[in-house]
Amino acid sequence: MSNIQRNRNIDTAFKYVGIGCTFFGIVMLLIFIGNILVDGLTRIDWDFLTNLPSRRASKAGILTAWTGTAWILGLTAIIAIPMGVAAGIYLQEYGKKNRLAHIIELNIANLAGVPSIIYGLLGLEIFVRVMRLGGSLLAGALTLALLILPIIIVATREAIKAVPNSLREASYGMGATKWQTIWYQVLPAASGGILTGIILALSRAVGETAPLIVIGALAYVPFVADSPMDEFTVLPIQIFNWVSRPQQEFLVNGAAAIIILLIITFAMNGIAVYLRNRWQKKVSW
Amino acid sequence: MKPIEAKNINVYYGDNHVLKDIDITIKENTVTAFIGPSGCGKSTFLRTLNRMNDYIDSFRKKGKIYIDGKDIYDKKVRVEELRRKVGMVFQKPNPFPKSIFENVAYGLKIHGIKSKYEINDTVEKSLKQAALWNEVKDKLDKPALSLSGGQQQRLCIARTLAVKPSIILMDEPASALDPISTAKIEELIFELKEKYTIVIVTHNMQQASRISDRTAFFYLGELVEYGKTSELFTNPRNKQTENYITGRFG
Amino acid sequence: MKRSGEKVIEYGLAFSGLVTILTTIGIIWVLISESWGFFREVSLADFLFDTEWTPLFTQKRYGILPLLSGTFLTTIIAIFTAVPVGIIIAVYLSEYAHKNFRQTVKPILEILAAVPTVVYGFFALTVVTPFLQSFIPGVGSFNALSAGIVMGIMIIPVISSLSEDALYSVPKSLREASYGMGATKFQTSFKVVVPAASSGILVSIILGIARAIGETMVVAIAAGQQPTLTLDPREAVETITAYIVQVSLGDVEHGSMEYKTIFAAGITLFFFTFLLNNVSFWIKKKYQEKYE
């Protein structure tokens, strides 16, 4: 019977191991954020946000980087949202049983597993070279749009799937066409879920570095872009550039820029989670 | 010796008062049937007897249950030891997705028995006791899920027997089975009562009258009537019992 | 009129779906056509068996092995970090934790997955590497160990959340059968629930491996950019992804050999991730059939 006592001891021990592991990642994240705040917080001031990049760490700012990120965010949204939502609608409402939809579905699952740097190679060849867009904002946005398209499509489908059929039937029953039903009934009802997915997808785009480096986004851009055809840099690339330098002052700049980047991604994720919770409450039909 | 004695049991799920003042004594080497309409508390009561309700967050209990004279909800009681002694067979056959042999050997292994000889021997004895040995002896390493439903349920009984309990709780063990498999299970229960104290929850009144020595009728969380099966079915003292066994509600 | 309008809309929507197929075709076409040029100049045998990768030097050698060893070394370290922690978290949350605790912790774990990878690179370089140097002799300022561990932390949520889904879908009746015989939670979890969910857990590990192989910024920042054929985790290595970044940072002329090398490296990477993804689909499908 001491056997049972031993089993119970193992059981209790595992409980603590489990709690420990659960908090391991979170504690790491906290250590890390604390570290970054200590390193970078004092470096952030108005000049840091409004200065152009410079070879002197103390004068360098992130103006071109954050404006580039804003440009990329906007352009990617304009390209990816209509396409992703449209494809999601097609798969869920039109293509339930046809072959094309089945192939698209399999394909999306496969695309979700393709490393982001491969999208960079695609963008480099197709957008930069064949379409002659060069290392422009537009080429970068198109590349990231393809990257986040699967996320938006899947989120749209999930949100539409949650809309009860009775709503569609009510609309059809009044003589509405399929598209009218989707446009006036289904999409508004699913909008919360779709929006959540879009924001999460865009937050992913904001944090991407590798594909943009591959298509030729530059680390040193001494002007603020004013057209989609301009060359650009983004915050993650600026961070990468600073972090790659041996001088301590640039690491400090990197930490400061990371704080700004984290504020942006956490804010986007926070909004997405908030919307999801609100939408889920509303959706208990 | 009284194997099971419950005194003043009240059970709550949150604000729901699901068992009210249950007092019952169950005798050794008998089959006791719990009958009553769905939601009357009979399964809940069965599960308090080996503390399977412990994992339900909202579960609360008042009163005492003694098994072999010991309060099973006492802080010093190890629930693992209790459940080894008070085995349970569930409504739907629930073999593990392992081999037939591994299913029966599982209980021995978790209780620290390592001797190969002892394990093999107990597996064989348990399967024989559960009247399954002849059907499976040549395919012990086949997946348990490849057996038929009735065989799976007898395997689950063998699995329970392997850890040598003294009491076996059965929660509608034949409700998911066809009539032939059901007959086999009933026959088995009849044989097992020589060695074990059996408590069985059933929806099926013919079954209760066929296999049990004593019957307890539960209604709306109360133990309405408890007595010898032959008397309860032929001459119920309570009006509600009579209505139920004659099929006026259910 | 109305009807033809409806059809136009349907085709428009279908076209958007087709874009994803065009993306796949585009990826495969781009990788094959550009590496075709590469393999006209470098024999497949040299590519696969030469032990040096020096396309950027004057003495050019094109053996992928050093990049592969760098990739696998960092991936293995990441998996050894993430799998035990991820599975323990999954078991704890699914079998032990209170419902409220689970609901609070899961979104917090998701934050780990939301942090941009360049940030993890900084973490590896400025926190983890100095920490490792403080007690392991011979750890370089760029090394595979630090990058691998941080990648592991990054993919913990991938493994824990997919594994938890798999554990959660194991029928409650199996747990009851085990508890009913006097098993503890630990025994029930690891002898019944985990084996029953093993295919789902395997899928989570495979997807974690695929993530680690394709991960770029952490290794580009913290593992160094030296294609050395080594299995010593304290040394600097270069992964396939880090090499692509390294070349891209310079000015690469289209048609040059450097330009082609990144596609040859890319197709190698794509081959592995494609393989892993399809193995995971296959397991998932087989597993669903088993339960139905």
Defining traits:
B: 250 residues; alpha/beta; 6-stranded mixed β-sheet; 4-stranded antiparallel β-sheet; globular; C: 292 residues; mainly alpha; MetI-like fold; 2 domains; 12 helices; cell membrane (chain B); ATP-binding (chain B); AAA+_ATPase (chain B)
Describe it.
Chain B: It comes from Chryseosolibacter histidini. The complex is a heterotrimer of chains A (285), B (250) and C (292). Chain A has helices at residues 2-40, 46-50, 63-94, 99-111, 116-130, 137-161, 165-173, 178-207, 210-215, 235-243, 248-282. Chain A is mostly helical and 285 residues long. Chain A folds into 2 domains: 3-43; 48-282, MetI-like (MetI-like fold, Orthogonal Bundle), CATH 1.10.3720. Chain B is α/β, with parallel strands linked by helices. Chain B has 10 helices and 10 strands. In chain B, the strands form 2 sheets. In chain B, strands 6-7-8-3-9-10 form a 6-stranded mixed β-sheet, with helices on both faces. Chain B has a 4-stranded antiparallel β-sheet with strand order 2-1-4-5, with no helix packed on it. Chain C is mainly α and 292 residues long. Chain C contains 12 helices and no strands. The longest helix of chain C is centred in the N-terminal third of the chain and has 40 residues, at 2-41. The chains are: A mainly alpha (285), B alpha/beta (250), C mainly alpha (292). The interface between A and C is large, with 87 and 84 residues.
Task: Outline the fold blueprint.
The complex is a heterotrimer of chains A (285), B (250) and C (292).
Chain A: H1 2-40, H2 46-50, H3 63-94, H4 99-111, H5 116-130, H6 137-161, H7 165-173, H8 178-207, H9 210-215, H10 235-243, H11 248-282
Helix pairs in contact in A: 1-11, 3-6, 3-8, 3-10, 5-6, 6-8, 7-8, 8-11, 10-11
Chain B: E1 4-13, E2 16-26, E3 31-35, H1 42-48, E4 59-67, E5 70-71, H2 79-85, E6 86-89, H3 100-110, H4 116-129, H5 133-136, H6 149-162, E7 167-171, H7 179-192, E8 197-201, H8 205-211, E9 214-219, E10 222-228, H9 229-234, H10 239-245
Parallel strand pairs in B: 3-8, 3-9, 6-7, 7-8
Antiparallel strand pairs in B: 1-2, 1-4, 4-5, 9-10
Chain C: H1 2-41, H2 44-49, H3 65-96, H4 99-114, H5 117-133, H6 144-168, H7 172-180, H8 185-196, H9 198-214, H10 217-222, H11 240-249, H12 257-291
